[in-house]
Amino acid sequence: MTSSLLIEQLLNGVQFGVMLFLMSAGLTLVFGIMNFINLAHGSLYMIGAFAGAATQAATGSFLLAVVAAPLAGAVAGLALERGLFQRFYARDHLDQVLVTFGTILALNEATRIVFGLTPLRMNLPDALAGHVEIIPGVPYPTFRLVILGVGLAVAALLYVVIMRTRIGMWVRAGASDRPIASAMGVNVPLVFAALFGVGAALAGLAGVMAGPILSVQVGMGEPILILALVVTVIGGIGSIRGAFVAALLVGIVDTFGRILLTPALGGMAIFMMMAAILAFRPKGLFPAHG
Amino acid sequence: MRIVLAPALALTLLSSAAFAADPVKIGFLSTFSGPSGQLGQELLDGFNLALEQNGKTIGGRPVEVIQGDDQAKPDVGRQVADKMIEQNKAQILTGINFSNVMLAVAKPALDAGAFIVSSNAGPSQYAGAQCNPHFFAASFQNDTASEAMGVYLTAKGVKKVYLLAPNYPAGKDFLAGFKRTYKGQIVGETYTTFGQLDYAAEIAQVRAAAPDAVYFFYPGGMGINFVKQYDQAGLKNSAPLYGPSFSLDQTVLPAIGDAAVGAYASAFWAETMDNPQSRKFVADFEARYHRIPSSNAAVAYDTARILDVAATAIGGKIEDKAAFRKALETVKFTSLRGNFAFNANHYPIQDFYLAQIAKDAKGRPVMAIREKIDTGHQDAYVGQCKMAAD
User: Fold this and answer.
1) Structural domains of chain B, with CATH
2) Half-sphere exposure of A98 (CA within 13 A, CB side)
3) Do the interacting molecules here have an ipTM over 0.90?
4) Interface test with B, best of A118, A218, A230, A268 (most B CBs within 10 A)
5) Which residue of chain A has the CA closest to B293?
């Protein structure tokens, strides 16, 4: 492998990892802080992608699509949280898995009824459709660099909010000890709803950023949800920093696993890594709970 | 006792004597749910269009279509097929789109006395040693589109080809079919995890190998992802994409859009096929369903035509299995594909064309036929088939 190919593949791995981070950030917050397993997180990603594609089809604007998708994700997420999921916070994980799995099926079917089974298309504006030669002789798709930039910006923003603001302090307090945090006067239902909304908006954003690269179709949320769960578990449930590091790890290991190992082994590489990490650190790399 | 039996006996006699008026029962088993659900709908729409144009009859008898969803799972397909045959008394099974579902369903269905006339899946097993008097594939043998593309790229003198497919049986079959006829150099062969989303790493490997062409088989959403990402990587001009029509047909083209324009497909039928029956079919299908039909719909349409023409030839008496088999083997109908005949193994002998993705008058991407690759193409397994008598 030449060094420019090595660098290109490294870039591919980081870019894929950043994409996964966008998906995992909301999932790990909801799982870690609210102790709620939301399998329907992938459906919010799908809703974001469809909202983006529909907005672009109606207005012709990619920028509007990027604005509409997180909004649609947040609205759908809040509606689900207020209408259904909040009743399950006190229930055990099996009940939560069942209700959110049922939600996946219902949302997939609803999307099929509204949009049909033919996958939708999202076009890139000309400025983003091409490629740039960041490594000499290796044109790299511009839009993938945009994803990289957006993902890093979201990571930085989340870091600042969570580590440097009062809201972030509540979130961290809730993550490490929920009863004490509410005893100290944190309005837990409000923080939870807001947090769920932010997580859903991030899933919607991930959906619209994936739209021009991946197929916008019913059921698109499930394969990526599995990867996001792997990231969440490796990173330590509830830890944004953990999710970021784990997402990059998964992206890079998956990329190099695919090109260096046999197909069967390459597909398993990230799961073998997960098993190895959990064997030594059962709570993940950066556990939020002590 | 005698009193009870007599009416029952009379009823049995009456019903067998009156079979010409009984409906022909067709089990339409396909994938209607999940990410591949679009395929089942496409097949059913094509099949139903032919039935509607025929006054909802097969061989002069009314038709009862029993629809079933296999959920793309062999075990589910097997259960639904069993129910269709035992409870609904389906006489003919069709619609199956996944070869692994077909392999699970075919043996018990054939043993129970049903005919299978496949409108899509064409596994090699039933083309070769396991060929069966009551199994027909009106569609294609899985390997043939790849074989045709191998013939074409060899004839064009394309020297270096890179191969990509998902790591599952059909993916391996398609690439094996290509390698069977392609005489140039294979500079890379990559199998990816089934359902993989991101292909950036594989595309970087393709660029590094610098092939003259890429031959790929990615059905459904995988193909949409791959072709879009390949275009964004800027490789489309230096290493053009070639695939079987299933990777570039109307089930995926609307979602891929301009990224597919310029890619090549080997096809036994395309929406631009220049014969009167095909032009009429495309126009009727668009008027009825408001989209361009894919080759899946075209083959399902042909399947319904085959059933009707064969059944009509024997006066609708498909219960006479030997006669129906003979009528199917020798069926003469105006196929959307032009030349069509069943081979000794009950798989098609048909022509293959090279198509290129171009835009139609309304700016939609379509498969435009460029030239004929092969006339009367037969699959590679027919020699292994020793077709049993009835």
Assistant:
1) 2-140+276-346 (3.40.50.2300), 144-267+352-377 (3.40.50.2300)
2) 6
3) no
4) A118
5) A118
